[in-house]
Automatic annotation (TrEMBL), chain A:
This is RsbT antagonist protein RsbS. InterPro entries: Bact_StressResp_Reg, STAS_dom, STAS_dom_sf. Gene3D superfamilies: STAS domain. Residues 1-112 form the STAS domain. Pfam families: STAS (PF01740). It comes from the Bacteria.
UniProtKB/TrEMBL annotation, chain B:
Keywords: Kinase, Transferase. The keyword Kinase applies. It comes from Oceanobacillus indicireducens. GO terms for molecular function: kinase activity. It comes from the Bacteria. It holds the Pfam family HATPase_c. The lineage of its organism: Bacteria, Bacillati, Bacillota, Bacilli, Bacillales. This is Serine/threonine-protein kinase RsbT. Residues 34-133 form the Histidine kinase/HSP90-like ATPase domain.
Length: 118, 133
């Protein structure tokens, strides 16, 4: 399974709609970094509205994606984290402190616009 | 719904199957959305540990009753290498695999009861319960 990555101007948009298994998560990490490199995108929004579970592994992959994209010069915003998911992340001791987040896709794009000024 | 079920963990996708079954059971018993997510997340952690460290094992699910309370009991069992120091692996951030080391201490916080038994060379059993509120 592969998570589709859409391009919108100089942003990449991803809406995760499938149950993420470990392999899909790793594949997504690779695909996104490749895509950032190829398209020279400056911002990425990953929408998690349909994701009803984030365990420690997926949290690590998402955190790593943010760090790696940052190294490449692209800013990532995670959007739409469900309340139940936010609560389980806290139980896991994962605070996502240095991961930019926004309420929904629209807010995520606004955040990128503000930070990147484009 | 079966009051007792069991999922064998031997391939990566079984982690997904195990947590989906747990969520379904939790939903039917009447757990809140948040507790359903907690239970599914706990199962995901236990199943991944089995897959990563013991290669294979199983997770059993049982609906249990105590006085007027209903709960979901999960037992994760494997015959892997075992854990030499349980208190060490229960520390936040302890990992031997480059993970976050959030799994086991996380399961303990996600659930209401948690017990771990392990013997080197014999395997590991983790029993955990979530009570309906
Ligand atoms: N079933 C098991 N058999 C043998 N060792 C285990 C088992 N489960 C956990 N361990 C050991 O306990 C350590 C801590 O496990 P824990 O799940 O807390 O963190 P992790 O798996 O390393 O990382 P994370 O779960 O955050 O991705 C593991 O690194 C591993 O060494
Ligand atoms: Mg683990």
């Amino acid at each position: 399974m592969r998570i589709p990555i859409l391009k919108l101007n100089n942003y990449l948009l991803i809406s995760i709609q499938t149950e993420i298994d470990d392999q899909t998560a790793i594949q997504f990490q690779e695909d996104l970094l490749d895509e950032i490199y190829k398209t020279e995108s400056s911002g990425v929004v990953i929408d998690l509205t349909s994701v009803d579970i984030i365990d420690s592994f997926i949290a690590k992959v998402l955190g790593d994606v943010v760090t790696m994209s940052d190294l490449m010069g692209a800013k990532v915003v995670l959007t739409g984290i469900q309340p139940a998911v936010a609560m389980t992340l806290i139980d896991l001791g994962i605070n996502m402190k240095n991961v930019p987040t926004a309420l929904d896709l629209e807010q995520g794009l606004l955040k990128l616009h503000k930070e990147l000024g484009v | 719904m079966n009051p007792q079920s069991c999922v064998h963990i031997h391939k990566e996708w079984d982690i997904v199957g195990a947590r989906q079954l747990g969520r379904e059971m939790a939903k039917e018993i009447g757990f809140s959305t948040v507790d359903q997510a907690r239970i599914a997340t706990a199962i995901s952690e236990l199943a991944r540990n089995i897959y990563l460290y013991a290669d294979q094992g199983k997770i059993s699910y049982e609906i249990i009753y105590n006085n007027s309370r209903t709960g979901l009991c999960l037992i994760a069992e494997d015959e892997g290498p075992g854990i030499s120091d349980i208190s060490q692996v229960m520390e936040d951030g302890f990992t031997t695999s480059g993970g976050l080391g959030a799994g086991l201490p996380g399961v303990k916080r996600l659930m209401d009861e948690f017990e771990a038994y392990s013997e080197i060379g014999k395997g590991t059993t983790i029993k955990t319960v979530k009570w309906l509120r």
